[in-house]
Amino acid sequence: MLRNTKINTKSKMKKYIKQYFDFRSSLKNKVAVITAGGGHLCSVFALALVNLGCKVIIVDIREKKLIDIKKKINNKNLIFYTCNLLNKYDVDKLSLQIYKKFKKIDILINGVGINSPKKFEQISKSDWNTVFESHLLSTLFGCQSFGKYMKKKK
Q: Of all helices (H) and strands (E), which one includes residue 131?
């Protein structure tokens, strides 16, 4: 019985290794757009995707954050754009610009969102609406604008 377990484990390991390398190669030369890529979490996503062979476009309204990331991740497959992702016109313009340059958009990671600097108990309705709106509208505009080019691949 123990012997069969080793064989099973070995064959499973081979399967997982194959899946891992198939996954890695499936991302090579994909074009990924990461909104609010200047943040902690999304900049890590950007690094991972660049390391997997993607062309990664980081979009953020905070130019200083983009400059900081460019210093940390110096890679020719990492491209930066500033954009107000709460402005539909700006997002439409940027998505068209990216599509024209790369001829495709394969991956979209929506990372935009703000938090209130106030303690939870002190957040007013107006504060809450601002936080909610930043998450909802940036996701809506990103999906609408970049999604129409992603659909063209099918």
A: helix 125-151
